[in-house]
Amino acid sequence: MAITTRSGSKSPVKKSSKTNAATDSPQQDPLKHFILPKDTPTQSRFILLRHPRDSDVQRFLFCPEKGLYQFTKVSPPSADPRSLLFTPLEPDRAESHAAEHTDRSQTASEASLSCRDGYVSKTAEFFVATPFDLAFILLPLVTGRNLFQPIDDLLEEHIRDNKHLRYLFEHGRCMVEEAMSRFCDTIQAGDEQMFRFSEDKALRMLIQKADAAMARGLPSTLEEKFVTRALEAPILSVKREDTTISAIKTKSNATAPDEEEDDENASEVFDSQSSAASIAPSAAFSEASTATSVSTVVPETISPELLELQKRRTVLDFLLESCVPDAIADRIRARLAAKGSPIDFTPLDGHLSSLAALRAEALLSRSISDFSRKRGLEDDETAELRAEKKRKQEEEDKRKRLGESNGVRALKKVDVSGMKKMSDFFARKPAARVA
């Protein structure tokens, strides 16, 4: 007899598991929220470009009318979790919004679901589109060319295998040419314009951006940390008043009337002695209080010229550190430090060097005069970094404690002294020695 097998199992357990697996919906990734500029046209696209600073691929928003935007992530601290509530739109606005933003693979009802019913985000993270100069994207692409070339020849190698950069070049050619003309020398060869990278024009472009940022005003926290504190004069020596002699004089003056009195009445002598004794503690107290009084040196007012130079240097350093490659940034810094620089930072450098000498002198004088400290005073920046690191560690510990269950917390309180660890029971037995 031939052996037959069943093609399918009749077990209800297997059937139910298969049905449950089919009915379970896949877990969806949380939505990402982007705040775009107002009245953004439908021709705008999300593109992936390499950031000029570290060549890391990041998401940008390109608008053929308004330009390029970079997304800045805004998130609450881990120790303070929050959520976002998106309220529903009005019916007429929801329908128009869904009709404009419907993808080919989505229906209008699916696209307008979040707009019609509202949405609650588990985490309060969102991305804000901030303007980003297209010149910084093009800067590392043309720095290696020392000859005048057309824009197509300069960017041909880069846009050949990069469809996002090619889309940017095809739909924003006028923007690309305008951006390159700000840091490149240009000549007209017939009907075609040719470009060559120029460090002088790149430096002037950065200075113009720094001046524009200073005209709008720096953030208060940035100005306080990098401008005001950097130019503050330190507190110099600590002067203590010598009040021992004055205290002795007070005692002698207090006892002098008692010595001039006659000893005819013993009660009067006793009263004079008690009055002198009552004055002596007050003199000692005044001595102790005046000995601890400190006279500090009032810092000089900072001149407006030094403030402007420090602000301009702060903005330029920020631009070079965040938007310019290292090789180009080093060359531009060398030009700023040269004699023919458009900005003369010599007064600022001299003032900062004198402040550094004053800080070293103040630190030395305080460390010598203060015998209660076992170690010298640390630098303020080191102390701030240590406090910031401690604060982050406390937030991380608090977040871990919030994620622990009650059982884990109870197990941590158990006294396990003298008990073996679980790994000891599964350790490999030592090999028996052969006699």
From TrEMBL:
Residues 1-36, 249-273, 385-404 are annotated as: Disordered. Coiled coil: none annotated. Residues 35-133 form the Rnh202 triple barrel domain. Residues 136-332 form the Ribonuclease H2 subunit B wHTH domain. It is found in: Nucleus. Pfam families: RNase_H2-Ydr279 (PF09468), Ydr279_N (PF17745). Residues 385-403 have a biased composition (Basic and acidic residues). One of its GO terms (cellular component) is nucleoplasm. Keywords: Nucleus. InterPro entries: RNase_H2_suB, RNase_H2_suB_wHTH, Rnh202_N. Residues 19-28 have a biased composition (Polar residues). Residues 257-266 have a biased composition (Acidic residues). GO terms for biological process: RNA catabolic process. Non catalytic subunit of RNase H2, an endonuclease that specifically degrades the RNA of RNA:DNA hybrids. Participates in DNA replication, possibly by mediating the removal of lagging-strand Okazaki fragment RNA primers during DNA replication. Mediates the excision of single ribonucleotides from DNA:RNA duplexes. This is Ribonuclease H2 subunit B.
